[in-house]
């Protein structure tokens, strides 16, 4: 229907002058153009542009920022995380530069798998790295258990071989709309609990939780305390760690810079190589 036809239909339906109906229709059209997309409006379940920290960097003002100095690496193990954003990785180079572990994006929601996952996941192990898979959560699309099953079925398994890290759950800002995916803290906490519980049933390991302090404290807060069961992988892009999310007293992994010496994001494991192997061994 033409804009003129819609205007006449509005005027007839509501008993308005044609000019008034035209103004209302224009306002409604402008509002629709400026509105944030919602899941039921056709937003996809996954993108090469979504990866650990992609939305944190945008929302917390870190996009394009580089730390002026590196954190003190004493007693820690350097590593990295990658997604399809990096494509196929030449794993010999980061290994030669000192990276000793990697997390690889496997899935997002229940409709996306990383097309480079096998090359990245198996390639990192092939050069000697301890590696693990992670899932980018879309908590407004399906329940936590359903997304955990999708993750495990598409690469998120675990083996107690000393080379496989527990699967990680990436919970951060919604790339499609509302920061907390339309959930209050209680319902978001329940979603994370569902995912981690189902992952533990399927693999024997609770999820490593990837998040930022700001997002977690806003969207989950103190409704869920996972410090005794779930390793923390925290994103904070400076050389000083700062406050941790509610529920943890220390971090297991720290994503401290979004780009640098290694492909993808730069990370530190909070322990030595022996402790990293023990984490992978369960």
UniProtKB/TrEMBL annotation:
The lineage of its organism: Bacteria, Bacillati, Actinomycetota, Actinomycetes, Pseudonocardiales. Keywords: Antimicrobial, Bacteriolytic enzyme, Disulfide bond, Glycosidase, Hydrolase, Secreted, Signal. GO terms for biological process: carbohydrate catabolic process; cell wall macromolecule catabolic process; defense response to bacterium; killing of cells of another organism; peptidoglycan catabolic process. Belongs to the glycosyl hydrolase 25 family. This enzyme has both lysozyme (acetylmuramidase) and diacetylmuramidase activities. CDD domains: GH25_CH-type. Residues 60-91 are annotated as: Disordered. It is found in: Secreted. This is Lysozyme. Gene3D superfamilies: Glycosidases. GO terms for molecular function: lysozyme activity. One of its GO terms (cellular component) is extracellular region. Its main location: secreted. The keyword Hydrolase applies.
């Amino acid at each position: 229907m033409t804009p003129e036809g819609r205007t006449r239909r509005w005027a007839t339906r509501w008993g308005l002058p044609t000019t008034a109906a035209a103004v209302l229709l224009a306002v409604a059209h402008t509002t629709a153009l400026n509105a944030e997309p919602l899941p039921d409006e056709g937003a996809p379940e996954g993108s090469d542009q979504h990866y650990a920290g992609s939305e944190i960097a945008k929302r917390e003002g870190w996009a394009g920022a580089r730390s002026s100095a590196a954190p003190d690496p004493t007693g820690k193990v350097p590593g990295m995380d990658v997604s399809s954003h990096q494509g196929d990785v030449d794993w010999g180079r980061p290994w030669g530069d000192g990276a000793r572990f990697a997390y690889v994006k496997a899935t997002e929601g229940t409709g996306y798998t990383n097309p480079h996952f096998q090359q990245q996941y198996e390639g990192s192990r092939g050069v000697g790295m301890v590696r693990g898979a992670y899932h980018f959560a879309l908590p407004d699309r399906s329940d936590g258990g359903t997304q955990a099953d999708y993750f495990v079925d598409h690469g998120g398994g675990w083996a107690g071989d000393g080379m496989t890290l527990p699967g990680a759950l990436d919970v951060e800002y919604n790339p499609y709309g509302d920061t907390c995916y339309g959930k209050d803290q209680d319902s978001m906490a329940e979603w994370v609990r569902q995912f981690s519980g189902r992952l533990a049933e399927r693999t024997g390991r609770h999820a490593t939780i990837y998040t930022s302090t700001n997002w977690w404290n806003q969207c989950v807060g103190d409704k869920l305390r996972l410090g005794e069961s779930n390793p923390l992988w925290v994103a904070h892009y400076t050389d000083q760690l700062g406050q941790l999310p509610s529920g943890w007293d220390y971090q297991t992994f720290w994503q401290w810079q979004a780009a640098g010496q290694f492909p993808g994001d730069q990370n530190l494991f909070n322990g030595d190589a022996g402790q990293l192997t023990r984490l992978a061994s369960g």
